[in-house]
Design brief:
The chain is an alpha+beta fold and 903 residues long. It contains twelve helices and 51 strands.
């Protein structure tokens, strides 16, 4: 559930600040400058094995600093007029936090930020103190975008040619420069160009930030140790599959003597309650690998291990490794790693599609493309909220195409139970040698070195996380032989434990062979029936990125991100360029989407009408995408093995590619996905009119009853059939309940289909409502492009416009405990008439009618027939009410909006 213990949010003021930050997109600023607040000083303990992140920086453009690098990087330098920045921050993120620019997420404000300011290097300067210099001191960091000269106490310790690439990891021994008291570290960060540097870019996701994310986007650690340092500690796990009855653990680390004299170290530790130790003699500056395995330490053979599972399949237990190197009876260094025990395999099936198995069980990958904040601002709470949304939606995976998040992200994924599919990004420098349609420059010898070092660093960082499912060493294109060889050597050296995939597209590499994935689109609007075809992006194989494109947010979000004039263009001007869609000429407008919306539902009459039609369209399209793949997972021919909705979220205020918006509001796309991915689910098939039950639980479902009823929009019943005694095996299997007739009586061209699934006790376990047409959408398959398949005739759903208003009563009450509130809402279709209330939406709001977010609804966007009622629950953090009483705003396709108290 989303609410977290109160200790995560210690004060009401902190909660209000976070809420305001998420609302404005500024995150750390109030609109006033903080330039005169000095950067914090980091106090580094003397204890061997300590690892302390620098707590912040002062930043300034080199165009405004005339002093020498030696002066800037020396203690006591005044840094007047510099901007304070957080512990990991891009240049623009720091300026936004200091109120230099208006909210870049609103309107076209971001266009007003001058790009020229970021075409020169910027200084990052931080002070840290040490009490003594008896031990050794190191700087340990990655996440430099794009490169940096590094200085300590007036001396350059690394040049930009060495510190290049967003993912390379660097350890600099600064022992000889560190002095007791205050010390200074400074980075002169070079401008970024993702087409020329192996860093990060955005392609067509959003309007790219003017600074192109230059800065330090991960922690810079100050590490202390004695004569012997421990590095590269990790645990290799081997789980007995399919029994899961035993697991072998192999602990590995490097012991490094950083002195000019030989030493003898005792390296020992514990994992899972098992202790071990070894004497390690080391010559001057020698490094040795230290390994503890079940052969020498029988306790590392575990019987009955606690096995890690994705959410919904089991628990997420984690183990802790603790290592210590001791020299002459004193601790010299320590290492700590958290890991999980699980087994991941991904062979190609008989049709050449990649089929994942976790702990011996086949798994349909259901996921979304993950986007960080556009300015790479890390907020642990915000990331956790989004990961918990993924679980709420019934997804099991998020894909990271580049933009590999900080360590905390993977820690959260481990604990929440969301699988992660990381990999390198497409189309820019990362694919400069292999993607002729991309924009990246070809690689130099130096780039090959940076790429291999990047792979080695990320492999070492991610290998112990049980949430990590694979690594995609290519995206739109697979690496060539030279690049693949470097990547695979780095992965093998790191004891990489899970499958390596050559590309997210249908491509091959010399050693790995075929990817077993496809990247056939679509990326723009297609009708729901599209997903059932076993071709292009339809439900066969593993589709690594796909969706029906635009995802219009709720009207609350739209009014926060756009001006009234811009909102008019959404529904009045299909061919108008939409800044909040994409910089791409392909995806720059809403032409395809708006044409389909008008063609199927009727031309919008205003903004409100446009948004409500968009929610219906997005609900049915996203639902169909996941339902088609869910039904196809156990097909004997061309089974569906994976689908990644492109995308899960957006890094800014967007009009496309999102299941949840920037502010964590939930629209039709969100609830369509949530409905499709229910644990036990009844659904309609657009291809053959069958009604099937999909069982995503592990155990068999028995004694089920499915009922299908067809209505005219006015509520006139045209067909009704009930089938009892259904049994459906588990693990994604499906069973056919019935097939709808090809035609029913009556003049209506639009119908509503209500599906209800009940268990042996008559309890409703799944309910699903569709709007269908007697003239279905017709696709021009021969006209398919890389991003969509045209529709030559639209389904006639205009009959929905004739639905009479439907009355829905709503009562609500709220209980609160330990910082968490639960609001219970009962909706009932009241009043006269036979017309159902279609797509009734419930929004939780505070005293100012602002959405309370994040929130987890048991269900939403529900449809009710006369006399029917439903009880929904919403869980959220009490502090997100901002001290006011909750309210419930109820609206729907044919239900008037009103707000009722929910205290």
């Amino acid at each position: 559930m989303f609410p977290r213990p109160a200790r995560r949010f210690p004060t009401a003021a902190a909660l209000l600040a976070l809420a305001a930050a998420l609302t404005t997109g500024a995150w750390a600023g109030s609109g006033t400058t903080e330039r005169h607040r000095p950067a914090p000083v980091t106090h580094v303990p003397s204890a061997a094995g300590s690892s302390t992140p620098l707590s912040g920086y002062a930043v300034q453009s080199t165009a405004k600093v005339g002093d020498s690098a030696a002066a800037v990087s020396s203690p006591g330098y005044p840094a007047r007029g510099w901007y304070p920045a957080g512990p990991h921050s891009t240049v623009l993120a720091a300026l936004l936090a200091n109120g230099v620019y208006a909210d870049p997420f609103h309107s076209t404000n971001q266009q007003q930020i001058p790009k020229a300011d970021f075409e020169v290097p910027w200084w990052y300067r931080s002070d840290f103190t040490v009490a003594d210099t008896a031990g050794r001191t190191y700087l340990d960091f990655s996440g430099v975008v794009s490169a940096a000269d590094v200085y300590v106490n007036g001396h350059r310790v690394a040049e930009a040619a060495r510190v290049a690439g967003a993912y390379t990891r660097h350890e600099l021994d600064i022992t000889a420069l560190v002095r007791s008291g205050t010390n200074t570290v400074a980075f002169r960060v070079q401008p970024n160009d993702p087409n020329k540097k192996l860093t990060m870019g955005w392609l067509d996701w959003l309007q790219p930030p003017p600074d192109r994310n230059m800065g330090l986007v991960r922690d810079v650690l100050v590490r202390r140790s004695g004569p012997v340092a421990l590095r590269d500690a990790h645990v290799v796990t081997e789980l007995a599959v399919p029994s899961l009855a035993a697991a072998d653990l192999t602990v590995k680390a490097l012991a490094r003597n950083d002195t000019d004299a030989p030493v003898t170290a005792e390296v020992g530790g514990s994992v899972g309650g098992v202790r071990f130790t070894r004497t390690v003699p080391l010559a001057a500056h020698e490094t040795k690998s230290v390994t503890f395995s079940p052969a020498g330490t029988p306790g590392l053979h575990l019987t009955g291990p606690e096995v890690w599972w994705p959410a919904g399949m089991g628990g997420q237990p984690l183990y802790e490794l603790a290592l210590t190197a001791t020299v002459a009876g004193r601790a010299s260094d320590t290492a700590h790693e958290t890991f999980g025990i699980r087994d991941v395999r991904a062979p190609l099936n008989s049709g050449g599609a990649r089929q994942y198995r976790i702990n011996g069980r086949e798994l349909l990958i259901k996921g979304g493309g993950w986007s960080p904040d556009e300015f790479l601002r890390w907020d642990r709470g915000y990331a956790e909220d989004r990961l918990r949304y993924a679980v709420d939606l019934g997804l099991n995976t998020v894909r990271l195409e580049g933009h590999l998040e900080p360590d905390e992200f993977f820690d959260l994924a481990d604990r929440v139970g969301v699988l992660v599919l990381p990999g390198w990004e497409c189309c820019d420098k990362w694919e400069g040698d292999v993607n002729p349609s991309g924009s990246g420059e070809r690689w130099t010898d130096a780039d090959h070195s940076v790429a291999k070092a990047s792979m080695a660093a990320e492999a070492a960082r991610l290998r112990d996380h049980p949430s990590v499912l694979s690594f995609l060493i290519g995206s739109d294109a697979a690496p060539n032989a030279t690049i693949e060889k470097d990547y695979l050597e780095a992965l093998r050296a790191a004891d990489w434990p899970v499958p390596v995939v050559p590309a997210a597209s249908d491509a091959s590499s010399p050693q790995l062979g075929a990817s077993g994935m496809k990247m056939t689109g679509p990326y723009d609007w297609v009708p729901p029936g599209y997903w059932y075809a076993k071709r292009e992006g339809g439900a066969t194989g593993f589709n690594s990125e796909t969706s029906a494109g635009p995802s219009i947010p709720t009207i609350d979000t739209l009014r926060r991100m756009m001006t009234p004039a811009e909102l008019d263009t959404l529904w009045k001007s299909p061919d108008a360029k939409q800044y909040h869609r994409s910089p791409s000429t392909t995806f720059g407008t809403l032409r395809i989407y708006n044409k389909a919306l008008a063609g199927r539902y009727g031309a919008p009459t205003g903004l409100t009408d446009y948004v409500r039609k968009a929610q219906l369209a997005q609900y049915e399209s996203v639902r169909a995408q996941f339902e088609a793949y869910g039904r196809g997972a156990t097909d004997t021919s061309g089974p569906a093995t994976g689908v990644i909705h492109w995308m899960f979220n957006s890094g800014w205020t967007s009009l496309h590619w999102q299941l949840t918006d920037r502010y964590l509001d939930q629209n039709g796309a969100y609830f369509g996905a949530k409905k499709a991915n229910e644990p036990l689910h009844v659904q309609y098939s657009y291809d053959d009119r069958s009604v099937v039950v999909v069982n995503n639980r592990h155990s068999r479902a028995e004694h089920l009853t499915a009922r299908a009823t067809l209505f005219d929009p006015d509520g006139t019943q045209r067909y009704d059939r009930t089938v009892a005694g259904l049994t459906v095996p588990g693990d994604g299997a499906h069973g056919r309940a019935l097939t709808l007739p090809s035609a029913v009586s009556g003049p209506a061209r639009t119908h509503l289909l209500r599906l209800v699934l009940t268990d042996a006790d008559g309890k409703e376990v799944s309910r699903n409502v569709y709007w269908l047409s007697t003239s279905p959408d017709t696709l021009d398959w021969n006209g398919t492009t890389w991003y969509y398949t045209p529709t030559t005739r639209y389904a006639d759903l205009k009959g929905l416009a004739s639905m009479a208003p439907a009355q829905v009563s709503a009562t609500a009450a709220t209980t609160s405990s330990d910082g968490t509130s639960t609001t219970t809402v009962t909706l009932r279709r009241t009043g006269s008439g036979t017309t159902p209330a279609l797509m009734t939406d419930v929004h939780l709001v505070d005293g100012k009618d602002r959405p309370v977010l994040p929130v987890r609804w048991s269900d939403n966007e529900v449809s009710l027939w006369p006399g029917e009622s439903v009880t929904l629950t919403a869980q959220y953090r009490t502090a997100d009410l901002h001290g006011s009483a909750p309210g419930v705003r109820v609206s729907g396709w044919n239900t008037a909006e009103r707000t009722v108290p929910a205290a």
